[in-house]
C-alpha cells in the first residue's frame, strides 16, 4: 500500500500507511528550501525527537497517546500507532449532552496529567484529540509538534487559554462545556487551582491586546 496523504501543515505531512501489514500513521517533517540543508535537517530531526519524547512521557503519565513504532532519522519521520475513531470535534458536534460532558471531563483529566508531567501540548484543539472506537472515555491526545517541556505555571495557563480560544471558536455557545472541562482539570491536577487562577491573568492580557489592536 502506497502512503496516502491525510493532512499537511506548515511543518509536517501526515500519511496513512501500513507497517508489517497493519495500519499506521507516518508524520514526516519535510525539508524547507529556504533554510541551509544542514540547519534544516538539524531542526527537523531535533523537533521529531522532541515529539517522540513527549509522546513517550505522556504515555508514562497515564495519558492515552499514539505509540511510536519507530523514528526514521534520515527522513525525519515518526511511524505512529493508527488510532481508529472520530475526532473529539466531530464527537462533540454529533453526540448527546451526557456524552459530550463525558468527553469534556476526559479532556480536563488528560490535560491535567500532561501538565503534572510538565508537558505543554501547544495546540489543544478538539481536532487533535481522538476517541478510540468512538468511546467518550477513550480520549487519545495526538500531534505534539508544538509542545514543550516546562515547569512554569504561566506556560500551562497559556496552554489552557489556547485550548479555550480554539474550543469556543470551533464549538460556539459552549462556554459551559469548557467550564466543565476546567472543573475536571482543577480536580485532577496537583496545581490545577493555581494554573486556572493564572488563566484569568492570561485572559485579561488577551482582552487588552484585542482592545489596543
UniProtKB/TrEMBL annotation:
Descriptive protein name: non-specific serine/threonine protein kinase
Domain of life: Eukaryota
GO terms classed as biological process: tRNA processing; tRNA threonylcarbamoyladenosine metabolic process
Enzyme class: transferase
GO molecular function: ATP binding; hydrolase activity; protein serine/threonine kinase activity
Residues annotated as domain Protein kinase: 1-213
Keyword Transferase appears in the UniProt entry: yes
Family membership noted in the UniProt record: Belongs to the protein kinase superfamily. BUD32 family.
Catalysis: reaction(s): L-threonyl-[protein] + ATP = O-phospho-L-threonyl-[protein] + ADP + H(+); L-seryl-[protein] + ATP = O-phospho-L-seryl-[protein] + ADP + H(+)
The keyword Isomerase belongs to this UniProt entry's keyword annotation: no
UniProt keyword annotations, A-Z: ATP-binding, Hydrolase, Kinase, Nucleotide-binding, Nucleus, Phosphoprotein, Serine/threonine-protein kinase, Transferase, tRNA processing
InterPro entries according to UniProt: Bud32, Kinase-like_dom_sf, Prot_kinase_dom, Tyr_kinase_AS
GO cellular component: cytosol; EKC/KEOPS complex; nucleus
SMART domains: S_TKc
PANTHER family: EKC_KEOPS COMPLEX SUBUNIT TP53RK (PTHR12209:SF0), NON-SPECIFIC SERINE/THREONINE PROTEIN KINASE (PTHR12209)
EC numbers, comma separated: 2.7.11.1
Subcellular location field: Nucleus
Pfam families for this protein: Pkinase
